[in-house]
Specification:
Layout: H1 2-38, H2 45-53, H3 62-79, H4 83-97, H5 104-120, H6 124-136, H7 142-158, H8 162-178, H9 182-198, H10 202-218, H11 223-243, H12 251-266, H13 286-304, H14 307-327, H15 331-351, H16 354-369, H17 372-392, H18 396-409, H19 413-430, H20 435-445, H21 453-466, H22 470-486, H23 490-506, H24 510-526, H25 530-556
Helix pairs in contact: 1-2, 2-3, 3-4, 3-5, 4-5, 5-6, 5-7, 6-7, 7-8, 8-9, 9-10, 9-11, 10-11, 11-12, 11-13, 12-13, 13-14, 13-15, 14-15, 15-16, 15-17, 16-17, 16-25, 17-18, 17-19, 18-19, 19-20, 21-22, 22-23, 22-24, 23-24, 24-25
Subunit structure: Heterodimerizes with MAU2/SCC2 to form the cohesin loading complex. The NIPBL-MAU2 heterodimer interacts with the SMC1A-SMC3 heterodimer and with the cohesin complex composed of SMC1A, SMC3, RAD21 and STAG1.
Subcellular location: Nucleus, Nucleoplasm
Keywords: Cell cycle, Cell division, Chromosome partition, Mitosis, Nucleus, Repeat, TPR repeat
Amino acid sequence: MAAQAAAAAAQAAAAQAAQAEAAESWYLALLGFAEHFRTSSPPKIRLCVHCLQAVFPFKPPQRIEARTHLQLGSVLYHHTKNSEQARSHLEKAWLISQQIPQFEDVKFEAASLLSELYCQENSVDAAKPLLRKAIQISQQTPYWHCRLLFQLAQLHTLEKDLVSACDLLGVGAEYARVVGSEYTRALFLLSKGMLLLMERKLQEVHPLLTLCGQIVENWQGNPIQKESLRVFFLVLQVTHYLDAGQVKSVKPCLKQLQQCIQTISTLHDDEILPSNPADLFHWLPKEHMCVLVYLVTVMHSMQAGYLEKAQKYTDKALMQLEKLKMLDCSPILSSFQVILLEHIIMCRLVTGHKATALQEISQVCQLCQQSPRLFSNHAAQLHTLLGLYCVSVNCMDNAEAQFTTALRLTNHQELWAFIVTNLASVYIREGNRHQEVLYSLLERINPDHSFPVRRFLRETLKMSNAEDLNRLTACSLVLLGHIFYVLGNHRESNNMVVPAMQLASKIPDMSVQLWSSALLRDLNKACGNAMDAHEAAQMHQNFSQQLLQDHIEACSLPEHNLITWTDGPPPVQFQAQNGPNTSLASLL
C-alpha cells in the first residue's frame, strides 16, 4: 500500500510539474512575441498588446495575471493615448499584487505608474492616497520606499506645496540614514535644500548645505555618483550666491563646479550595481548635468554683465540641447531650453538686438505651446520679456499691458519686484497721466522715502562695485552723471559719465552707451571742448543709427504682433506687419 501511495504521489507531482512547465512555455512564448513587437522598429504596439491580452484566457496564476496587467498598463500608458485601458490594467495589477506575498516589484511599480497616470489625468486627489499607502507598506523594500517618497515629494512640489514636499524629503533622508545609504540620504537632503531655496528659507538652507557638504566629501562609492552629488551641491551653492547678487563671491564655487563637470565627462559609467538597493538612484544623466552647468554659468555672466560670454555659453548649451532632444524627450530639457532662451533674450535687448530677441521670444512661445505645464511655469516670465521688448521699441501701452498681465500670473517675490519696477519706469516715461498709479507702485516697491535719491545711488554704486555687478555699476554711474549735469556740477558729472561709457562698451550695453554719449556731447559743449563734443556727437549718431535700423527690422517682423497677446496660451501664428508703427523719439 505504501509503495502504491508513493507511486501515486510521484505521478501527481510529475503531472503538476508537466502542467507548470507547459504553462511556463505558453506564457514565455507570448511574452517573447510581445517583447519582439514592442522593440521592433517601428514598434508594433497593437500586436504587442494582442500577445499580452492572449495570456488571460489561459486563466494564469495570480502572479502571472498581475504582472501581465502591469505590462499591458505600462505599454498602453507609454505608447498609446488609451489612458482609460491603461488605468484599468494598472488598477488591477495594484489590486491583485497586494494579495501576493513577496511580490514587491510588481506591486510598487504598479502603484508608481498608476499615480503618474492619475496626475496626467489631473486626478491628483487619487494619486496622493495611492502613493501614501504604497509608502506605508514598502518600508521593508528600501529602493521602492525611497523612490515612492521622491515621487510623492515631486507631486507636492508640482502643486506648489513645498512644505509637505520638504517634510517628505526629510523623512526620506532619515530613512536612508537608518538603512545605511549615505548617498541617498544626501540626495534627499540636497533636494530638500533646493526647495528651501525656492521658499527663501535661507536660515534653514545654511546648516543643511553645510551638512550636505560633509556627507558628500565623506562618502566613498561609485565615482560618477560621488561627482554627481558634488555637482548637485555646487549648483545649489552657486544659485544661492546668485540669488543674493554675490557675483564676485560665487566665483570659487562656480570654478569648482566647472572643474567637477569636466571630471565627470572623463569618467566611464560603472556597470557594477551598488550593494545597497537604496543606492540605486542617479540625480541626472551626465549630459543633462553638462547643460545645467552651462546654464548657471550663463546666469553668472548675465548678472556680472559679461554679455558676450553669456551668449557664447548659451550657444554651446543650446547646441547640446538640440542633440540631446533628438534622442531624449525628457521634459527637463525643454525647461533648460526655455530658461536659456529667457536669459539670451535679455542679453539681446541690452546689446541692441531687438529683432533677434523677438524671434527668440517666439521660440519660447512655440516650446510653451507643446507643454501646458511649461507654459504655466513660464507664462509670467514670457509676458515680462514681451514687456521689456515693448519698452525697447517704445510701445508703452503694450508694455503696460504685458507687465500687468505678468503681475497677475506670478507669486514669485523677486519677479514681482522686477515687473513692478519696470512698470513704474513705463509710467515715468509716459508722464503725468499715470502719476497716482506711479506713486502707489513706488509705495509698494519701497515704503521708506526718507533718504535722498543720491544717497541711494551712491549705496547702489558701492554694492555693485563690491560684487562686480558691471551693468548695475554702469547704470548707476550714468544716472549720477546726469543728475550732476542737471545740477551744473560738470566736473563731477564727467567723473561719472566717462567710466560709465567705458563699462557700457565692455558689456556692451547699447542704451547706456547711447545715454552716456549724449551726456558727453552736452558736457563737452557746455565746457567749450568742441573737438570732444564733436567726437561724442558722432558716437551718439552711430549708436542712434544702429538702434533705428534694428527698431525698423523688429517692428516689421510678423512676430511683432505678439505684443498684443495678453490672455490665454501663446498664439500659434502671426500675420506680417505692414511696417513699423511706433515712435522712435524717446529712443534717439
